[in-house]
Every structure is written in C-alpha cells, then in structure tokens.
Amino acid sequence: MLPADIPTTAHLLELIDARDDASVTIALPSSPVPSDHDNVRADLRSAVSEAGRMLAQKDLDAGRVEAVVEALRALDADQEFWRHQSRSLVIFASSTRLETFRLANRVERNVAVGDRFDAGALLRATAFPHRAFIVQISQGGARLTEISADHGVVERELHLPDDHHTLLEHATNDGQADMPRSQGSTGDRIERERYCRVVQDDVVTIAPRDVPVILAATVDLEPAYRAVNTHPRLLEAKIDAHPDSLDDAELEQKARAILDAEFSRELSEWRELFGTRRADDLATSRLVEVAAAATAAAVDELLFDIDATLEGQIDEFGVVTTVEEPTASAYAVVDEIAARVLRGGGTVRGVRNGDLVDGSPVAALLRFPVSAPAEG
C-alpha cells in the first residue's frame, strides 16, 4: 500500500487557519521507488531555494527567514524521511512549524509563500471520492485491497487469526466433539457468519466509514458477510465472479465499473435533490451566494470543482473579490469556500467540473436561505 498521510478535518482546518507571514508551501510530485528519490530530492532543493528567494523579498527578519529555510533543507538529509515515500509530497513550513504529508494522488508542482499555507492539495485528497475497498472472501481465505483515482489495486493487510479457516471446518465425529457445534442448515449459517465476522471486524478498522466497500464473495458467504456487516458504505452491487478466480487487473476493472455506477447514481440523486431544493431557495450554484452561505454556516453539503483555479479573497461577510493574476494576498477562492463549509459543520466533496451544474465551480445544498452580498 502506498503511504498516505491524510489529515483529519480538524487538523486540515488548523493548517488552513494558521497565519504566519513566513508561511511556505511546497507541493512536489514524488515516487515510492527508492531509485527515483535522488531526482525528487533535487527538485526539493530547487523548491527550497525558490522559497528562500521569495521569503527574502518580503519585509521579514532575516533570522526568521533563515530558520524556515534551514528547516526545509534539513529534510534533504533526513534518511528516515526518505525511506517511505508516495506519489506526491506536500510540505508546510513557517516560523513555528514544519509538517510533511505523503499523498497517493498526484499533485502539480507548487511553491508558495504568504501569510498562510496553501492546503488545496490536502483538501482535494480528502474530498475526492473515487476510492473504494474490496473484500474478497471465500473458503480459501480473505483479502482486502484498495483502489483510488490515482492507483490501481493495492494490498491492505488483514490481521486474521492463524486458525481462521477452521471456523468453516465440519467436525468428523458425528458432532460429538469436545466443543459442540451447531448442526444442520442453521449451524452452517452460524459458522459462515462467524467466519465472515472475523474478517468484517478487521475490515472496519481499516476502511474509513465514508469510503465505499465492494464485496467479492462466494455464493454461500455473501449473505453471511452482509448479515454481520457494520460498515455503512458496503455497496449493494457486488463483483459477480468467484473471488479466487480474478487477477488484479480483472478485479480492478470490475470494481471500477461498480464504483463509477455508484458515483453516477449518487450524483444523479444529488442533482435531483438540488433542483428540488433550489425551487425553495435552499440550493444554489452562484459563487457569490455559495461564498456568503459558507460564511454564514448555512451550507449543508458542497460539491466543488477539484480543478478550479479562480483566485481572490473572501471577506468576513462572504463578499468575493477575484483577481486576474495571482498576488501575495490572494488565494484559491473555491478552496476557501470549502474550508468555510467544513468550519460550519458541512460536508464537502470534490468532483470534476462536468459533474457540477450550470458550469459553476461550486454547488451547495443549504440549511436556510442566504442572500448574497454585493460582489467586490
């Protein structure tokens, strides 16, 4: 499994809210392959030098600038840091902190200096939903794998007891074993459910509750697994093949087809709900209205374009001011809207622009109507 450091919502908001005029954000493509690390480290050294030059142009104490740059340079020599890498690397540095995040998705190279961190890459990593876990279970054993928008099938280790397979073994002494076992069809069902429960109990410790789980089970074990399942996102659709007959390419193909169909179904239902609620002023796709609603903690659920690049500012009243060219005080407006939704207890989901409505980079379901302020 590729390493990934996905922050909690509280930690993400802490990073977004942090203010320090010596804040540096570095996002770089990386690699889990050790032989590629020399190139990644060279890119990091270049990015640190670039950040240093940008900091030097600000009216900052030279000692503070040097401390931030030296903390970043130290990463190059940290052998433990380079031992396990992923597809991308995001680094936040300031006068008071240094944090690094490995992401399994790919990010665009970015070096930014300002009074805040550019946490957009982390926001997208947490909000883009094209991810699922696959449970393969048969009498021969169980396996858990994961797919996402940026990687194919990767193994997730299950910690099953060594004697797990014996839960399906039938006694050979006419049921007169020292430990009595249930007999008949009911007994078989109980044994199958016990066998599946051991797997399920481990799966729920690994698969987050908001990430779909897809089942690939034999005909006899599928109902048993569903009977004991406690994961809220176990999909009704299943992989219709014997779990032991699939190689990883076939498994990925079937799982992605199910995930795509589920995503399309959810979006279709969301758009229908959006249309119904918009008639009651409880949904909007106008950027200025969504910004005002996010500021007033009125957004229940936000869909946003993960490729949006609009920059500007949003004031404390939700008034949006956009800029044609990036400036030191500007930031990604859509990311800021998403952050305000999270602060207000709403949920956010990143999608492609074509999955949104009206060609807008945002669409929101509201808790109560909000009037948009005048645009800046």
Q: What does this molecule look like?
A:
This protein is an alpha+beta fold. The chain has 3 domains: 9-127, Translation, Eukaryotic Peptide Chain Release Factor Subunit 1, Chain A (2-Layer Sandwich), CATH 3.30.960.10; 131-265, Nucleotidyltransferase, domain 5; 280-366, 2-Layer Sandwich (60s Ribosomal Protein L30, Chain: A), CATH 3.30.1330. It has 10 helices and 16 strands. The protein has helices at residues 9-17, 37-56, 62-74, 79-83, 120-127, 184-206, 222-228, 248-278, 287-295, 333-343; strands spanning 23-29, 88-93, 98-103, 110-114, 131-138, 141-148, 154-156, 213-217, 234-238, 283-284, 299-305, 311-314, 320-323, 331-332, 347-351, 362-366. Strands 7-6-5-8-9 form a 5-stranded mixed beta sheet, sandwiched between helices. Strands 3-2-1-4 form a 4-stranded antiparallel beta sheet, with helices on both faces. A 4-stranded mixed beta sheet has the order 10-16-11-15. β2 (88-93) and β3 (98-103) form a beta hairpin. α2 packs antiparallel against α3, α6 crosses α7 (222-228) and α9 (287-295) packs parallel to α10 (333-343). The radius of gyration is 25 Å and the shape is flat. It starts with 8 loop residues before the first helix and ends in a 10-residue tail after the last strand. Residues 171-185 have low confidence and may be disordered.
